[in-house]
Amino acid sequence: MAAQYRGTSSRAPDEAAVTPGPAGTPPGSGAPTPGGANPARGGVLAGRAAPYVLILPALVATALLLGYPLVRNVIISFQTLNAFQLIQHTTQWAGFSNYKEQLTSADFWHTTERSIFFTLANVALIMLGGTLVGLLLNRLGKRMRLTLSLGLILAWAMPYVAGTTVYQWLFDTRYGVVNWTLYKLGWHSMHGYNWFGSQLSTFAVITLMVVWGSIPFVALNLYAGLTTISTEIFEAARMDGASAWRTFSSVLFPMLRPFFLSTTFLEIIWVFKAFTQVYALNAGGPEGLTETLPVYAFVEGVGNQHYGSGAAISVLTILILMALMSYYFRIILKQEDDL
Amino acid sequence: MRRSPFARFWPNAVALVLFVFFVFPVYWMVTTAFKPDLDIISTTPVFLPIHGTFSHFDKAVHAAGFWTLVRNSFTVTVCSVLLSLLVAMAAAFAVARMRFRGRKAFILIVMMAQMAPWEVMTISVYMIVRDQDMLNSLLPLTLFYMMMVLPFTIWTLRGFIAAVPKELEEAALMDGCTRLQAFVRVVLPLLAPGLMSTSLFGFITAWNEFPLVLILNKESGQTLPLWLTQFQTNFGDDWGATMAASSIFTVPVVVVFLVLQRRAVGGLTAGAVKG
Fold this sequence. Notes:
The structure holds 2 protein chains of 2 kinds.
Chain A: H1 7-18, H2 39-77, H3 83-88, H4 97-103, H5 106-139, H6 142-157, H7 160-170, H8 177-184, H9 199-226, H10 231-239, H11 244-255, H12 257-273, H13 276-282, H14 293-303, H15 307-338
Chain B: H1 5-34, H2 37-40, H3 55-61, H4 66-97, H5 103-114, H6 122-131, H7 138-163, H8 166-174, H9 179-208, H10 211-216, H11 224-234, H12 239-267
């Protein structure tokens, strides 16, 4: 993925190569192991095995810590595993019944629909907002740009859990500053409004929080990408009498296409998987109406101790996520072919 | 270039509004943490905390087990990041410098692993850890956090290693260094900035992780994110203390971000660090 960013991602490695300067050059004298075994002959065998030895720890870790949980997840999804079986340590196979139960349940489909709609709405807002803020950063003077960047970085650096506590406080029914502001603006019905009492308003707060926390990533990255494009291109476009929109759609967007593509897909993944923000804010409430698929799997599996159905939901979630990302995977695969 | 005063003015005005939009929640968190209770629950919000107090921080810091949680969080985070650096460095070196069968397959595995849906794997992770009788221990957390940051670490280090001129290494080999010596003496010092920024991103991920610790360490061995959600439940409407606790939890991350500001931008897109 890094390779797509032309200037932006290669900048750091360049610095890495340059900074230590001459100090980093080999000592030359005093090489301690001359002679010994013939390096050329020993080197062939060691050389052939070396890469595999080097990637072995990473492969083992991935297989044990990621592969095994994934497989286990699938296995559990075919079991009847509730509190009883858990305590008794018994294995009770269920065939496809967990899946059948989910696929015929209205709750599951509502949650899926909600999850996808939530993802699309958030990603659209994030990409639109992030692009506009990024373009604005490019247009600002130095001082104002630094100011806005600082604000973006602060929002970005806010950990999800801390972010949710802050948003709960901002939207607090009695003492929340949001209700007070709306009241002062003449919206008197908002006095003492309970934001976490209805589905739509809870989603509104979650969305605001997610968009607030995600725009900085898109905006700052877009700005970094823009700085790698020479200003002459814009000058040329302006000379040709292109409007701002035309410049964006015909010049900028095509140049930054890889950026928009990968950022959009990253955001889709992140928003679709969003668990902490949704769960920590209101635990999927009121009455499970803001449960997205990851939260639904958690509540059903861990909360209600239906581990088997929870696992089935998570397998289905992964499948849906993969379907959403298949297009992106195809592009990545193609890129690796060019490597 | 000629631009009307209006054309010069509006971007600044918009930027200012946006600045307030992004900063206000952070500002509100920090100032609430310093306000005396009367200012927090006043009918008119107090926008400037004139009467500052440390009592909320005092309460948060002296909450039961706070320092154990801080220690847990730091232990898990630092260990997982160091472990992943070690594992990733070897793999990244192989991928950046060597041609071998299966290289592309390995790269693909790394990319897929980067998108691992940890949030929905809580149930199987719980089962695995329970079967090992390791619930409420820091070791499984460390290992899983290591795995969470590993793909990104490999991916980023690969770029940094590839950027070190091969000639430097070859010169060291000519001088009689073994490949390991050449790596340790020549490549490693040059990688320092890369290792720094990579590990800082790992720090953020591990420091913030919530779903796994929520299910694995309910009784003991908790970390700060979990504490924070419970703190809020336990302290009810004590917003001053809650905001103080949130601020304390946020500080290390903000410090990390300010340290890597420039690198955070651009380089970060390389991996799915955020989630």
